[in-house]
Design goal:
alpha+beta; 14% helix; 33% strand
Length: 135
């Protein structure tokens, strides 16, 4: 499956199998096609070297090239640096938390290069061959 994102929203989907399923998931509600979570795992810091069929472990797989995992749909409130019970719907929106009935973790273990594009116009390589570069 491949998702193409623009401004945090999946705008194009492609899948060899199950494309209708993917489209239905992403159209479940207004937040389902938006980024709820994103992570890069540096292979040097992960002790997980095989898949365990448990997303909480698999999304932190180190492997040869580290991994990138992204969740479309809801953001988890417990990532808030404070008491999550104090988060109102308005505050969550203001802080950029996405709201959806869906939280779908997708893991990618392919070789990847990640560049940060700064507002100054500068481009900095921050991740390559499964590791943060330390730019």
């Amino acid at each position: 499956m491949r998702l193409t994102f623009e401004k945090g929203k999946a705008v194009k989907t492609n899948a060899r199998v199950g494309k209708d399923f993917v489209s239905k998931q992403l159209s479940m509600d207004t937040g389902a096609n938006k980024v709820g979570e994103f992570s890069l795992t540096d292979r040097r810091f992960s002790r997980i070297n095989k898949f365990m069929a448990d997303t909480l472990f698999d999304e932190n797989y180190g492997g040869r090239y580290g991994n990138c995992h992204i969740a479309v749909g809801a953001s988890y409130s417990d990532t808030y640096d404070g008491n999550p019970a104090e988060l109102t719907k308005e505050l969550k929106k203001k802080l950029g938390f996405n709201d959806s009935a869906l939280h779908w973790d997708l893991v990618n273990t392919e070789k990847k290069t990640v560049d940060a594009h700064l507002t100054s116009g500068q481009k900095i390589r921050i991740y390559e061959d499964g590791m943060f570069t330390g730019y």
